[in-house]
Amino acid sequence: MAMGYEGLALLNVNGTEDMALCTGASVPKSRVRLDSSAAYGGQIKTPVPEIAIGTPHTHDWTAYDGSMDVELTKDFYDNQLKPWIFDRQKAAIVTIQSRSGNVQRFTKCYWNSISISASDGGAVTASIGFVAMQRDTYTIGGDYLGNKVGDEGFCSLQSFGVPDPLNPGGSNNVPIPYWNTQVKINSVVEEFITWTIDFSQEVVKFFGCEDNANPVEPKYVAVGPMAASFSGDYMFVDAATFALTETILSLDVLLDPYNSPSEFKFEDLELETATDALQSPDSLVPIAVEYAAYTIAV
């Protein structure tokens, strides 16, 4: 679905929900078929009848595997996203609205990928992939032409406002700008013009043998080991202190460091790739690095 004037997303991990401006989302309803490869499954009625065209359709079940992209706020990160990363098997509730009155509510959602990134001149963004076990609400909603008013939650409340670069400690409910982040390597702030932290885990569905003639939904779900990494473009400046090393003892990513900073701390990182290449004739040359993280500190 495309997020337009009324586009937003809600995430509920621990009993309360937080809203974020959603720049895109997709949670298609798909049927997962069980087919036989050894039997007659269809026919062409003309010109010659009774000619097989495929395998038979036996049983199937419904899958809701989706993703959403949001502009990250401090509250959304502190209350929802970070706790969900640490509680990897926690079932969350995801609600998506693409227009006025339209609601899709997915329950028992498990994340399989989370990416948080920032780059010079933009807001911090998060991309979340998840597996939903069921959709319990689907309301089509109103029309398009008469509803171009947006969601007033971000505009009408005086406590919400646009971040001020001269007053970094802004509201917790507006997108975090790139310039209000920091990356520390071994407690030293480094000049990264882009950075990304990635998390991934496999979500596996299990089915039970229940002697049921109808399609049976997955009975159990489990998550596999998690992988975490940090990548970014480091820009050398005068008196640069950054040293490209094979291992890093600690790496901190701070969001809104001037206002009760939100922090994600990695330990025991190992260099995977490092690229010192000319990108274009008129550009400065950063060093692009990617580190795999083996420890996440609370």
Describe this structure in words.
The chain has one domain. Helix content is 4%, strand content 49%. It has one helix and 14 strands. A six-stranded antiparallel beta barrel has the order 1-2-4-7-6-5. The chain is elongated, with a radius of gyration of 23 Å.
Brief write-up:
Helices cover 4% and strands 49% of the residues. It is mainly β and 298 residues long.
Beta-strand percent range: over 45%
Main sheet: strand order:
1-2-4-7-6-5
Helical residues, percent: under 10%
- Number of helical segments? 1
Number of strands: 14
**Poorly predicted runs of 5 or more residues:** 150-161
**Oligomer status:** single chain
**Alpha-beta content class:** mainly beta
Largest sheet: 6 strands, antiparallel, barrel
Give the rounded overall mean pLDDT.
82
Distance from N terminus to C terminus (CA atoms, Å) equals 35 Å
> Secondary-structure element sequence?
EEEEHEEEEEEEEEE
Based on CA atoms alone, the radius of gyration comes out at 23 Å
Give the tally of structural domains.
1
Please state the overall shape, judged from the principal axes of the Cα atoms: elongated
